[in-house]
Amino acid sequence: MSSASSPAPASAGSGVGSRLKSIIGGSTGNMVEWFDWYVYSAFTLYFAPHFFPSEDQTAQLLSAAAVFAVGFVMRPIGAWVMGIYADRQGRKAGLTLSVTLMCLGSLIIACTPGYETIGIAAPALLVLARLMQGLSVGGEYGASATYLSEMAGQDRRGFFSSFQYVTLISGQLLAILVLLVLQAVMDTRDLEQWGWRIPFVIGAMLALVVFRLRRGLAETESYKNAKATGAPKSGFLQLVRHHPRETALVMLLTAGGTLAFYAYSIYMQKFLVNTSGFSKEAASQINGVTLFVFMCLQPIAGGLSDRIGRKPLMVAFGVAGVLFTYPIFSALEQTQDVWTAGLLVMAALIIVTGYTSINAVVKAELFPSHIRALGVALPYALANTLFGGTAEYVALSFKDAGWERGFYWYVTAMIGVSLVVYLRMRDTRHRSLIQED
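RESULT FIELD:
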């Protein structure tokens, strides 16, 4: 799926209209990718009994969370292979390949019979599907972050690149919206028996639409300039030999941010049901409303970084995350009021906005164009595998061991590690390596 096989669009640099069209096109595809990825988490409470029969709900969720984490094992491999592919064949070629793999993973989950029908093959196929989706998402992040950052233009790079998380969150939000609609129109029994398959079918169909959309995207000037000047080929050895500091920097600045994001958003739905005692419907509503507001905050914070720099926002996230993560989770344990819970979750998401809104552009600005997609994707994916993908499993393990608050301290500590990095690193807004303008 090289870029040469698709129709030749207008130059990426032909004007503001062309640039905006490319950003919107790339963002739309990113939304569908993340919808497919997050549907698994949103519907875990319904499909877990089909794949992991048990009388204990926490045990079922723990097994499903383990498979969620397994999907992250493939993310570094996807980041490595597809990051190189996007650097060598083009950003849009990488984006097209990633959505193809995501589509196949969703179809497998939608069609797989339960444990009672095919036994151990059911969870095995679930693992296979998540491995394929992990490979897809591993390549998606680097390609989309690079594409949006290179397309954005120097003065609005923070603002436009923030749409990488706008679409990531909107994909998650769309998954929750589908859940809310199905909860409203279906009996609980039907939703538990077969209705949970519907969103996976929807995701696969949307991915086919995005496949066609992405083949028509404009290529970035940064990629074309790197090809024209005969820059070195992207590769793992090239990355670790010539950019070891930047590679380590991406891993460390990601560790606390990605763990906080998954704790505050992905795990939060289960936490509200399994610990706070809210109904599944109430937890979904809280998660949906707060994520919508969170999504709207991303371009505001991204635009702010274009004025004051990237570093102040990341430092603000680090300081607030260290101070307030434990109190927020502790308060959520005790509350039975929907409004109070919503405000507490919203406070956590406002805190993590300092990371989510600009993390993509910060990473892209650290690397030269010939190795940018790999440099953004691989260390990020490694940190995500270690900290983001395991967040639910670690949280449920602490709960299963009878010390749930240990997870709150764990999140606080990892945000603290990243805060040290934020304080010591340069502000990439002032020393960006994106030179296409």
